[in-house]
Write a structure and sequence with these properties.
259 residues; alpha+beta; 6-stranded antiparallel sheet; two-stranded antiparallel ribbon; 35% helix
Length: 259
């Protein structure tokens, strides 16, 4: 191998090693950010301030640079902030939303404050084919369509789009939707309890309308919960598309393994 080729090969090797080290450092920072995120979302820092970077480095066996990168990731998520003379403090709170029980939002978050609903749109509308199929109504039949902005302690939390069969939905037109969960109203109107729901959860980018209503940056990631709720007798009565602000909600559940 010529001297030039040896130098070229050595240079490529050095670049590869440097890139590998950067990737490892980024991986470690992401891993540490995941651990710290769990701590701050579950009250692991009760005084609202994270330990000093040196303490974090010691506690987690990480370098100061890795700690700084991890804190930068959490800062970019809007969870922490650097305050002169104080250090890194928690500036955002995410509220837990369970996925293992069928409950309305006010029931789920009652320990964290008051949920209020702003009814933005409500009225009969022809059911799009996928909605009609899932609610088991004739294609094109009218259903009750409801759009609500839901707030927790005054802060925008979710934008809910709801479809209800009209024979049940008509009674909702005169109901107090601003202060009452739809689930309670459906049970009262139908005379039977809710039974089960099918859910799908995914991350989507906020469209211009959703972002404006939720007061979130346009294109920001939101958690989309699609839920089809059935009465105890199996009839589907509530199809919802719920967009949660991802920086204000965290989903959790208890899963058991069965083969």
């Amino acid at each position: 191998m010529s001297t030039e080729r040896i130098r070229e090969h050595a240079g490529q090797g050095a670049t590869t090693v440097a890139a590998h080290r950067r990737r490892l450092r980024a991986d470690r920072a992401r891993q540490l950010a995941d651990l710290l995120r769990h701590q701050l979302l579950t009250g692991g820092f009760p005084n609202g301030a994270l330990p000093h970077e040196t303490t974090l480095a010691t506690d987690y066996g990480a370098s100061r640079n890795t700690v700084r990168q991890a804190l930068d990731l959490l800062r970019a998520e809007g969870l922490v902030e650097r305050q002169p003379g104080v250090g890194t403090v928690v500036v955002a709170q995410k509220y837990p939303h369970g996925l293992d029980r069928l409950m309305g939002l006010a029931e789920t978050l009652h320990e964290h404050g008051r949920v209020t609903n702003e009814v933005r749109t409500m009225g009969p509308a022809p059911a799009p084919a996928p909605v009609a199929e899932r609610l088991r109504v004739p294609a094109g039949a009218d259903v009750l369509y409801i759009e609500r902005l839901r707030r927790l302690n005054g802060l925008p939390l979710s934008l809910d789009l709801t479809y209800v069969p009209l024979d049940i939905g008509t009674a909702l037109l005169d109901a107090d939707l601003e202060n009452t969960d739809v689930f309670h109203l459906l049970e009262a109107i139908s005379g039977q309890p809710l039974g089960h729901a099918e859910i799908t959860l995914e991350a989507v980018n906020a469209d211009a309308h959703s972002a404006a209503v939720l007061q979130a940056p346009r294109g920001a990631a939101v958690l989309m919960l699609e839920r089809l709720t059935h009465l105890a007798d199996g009839r589907p009565v509530d199809l919802e598309f719920i967009r949660f602000r991802g920086d204000r909600i965290t989903m959790s559940g208890l899963l058991r393994r069965s083969l």
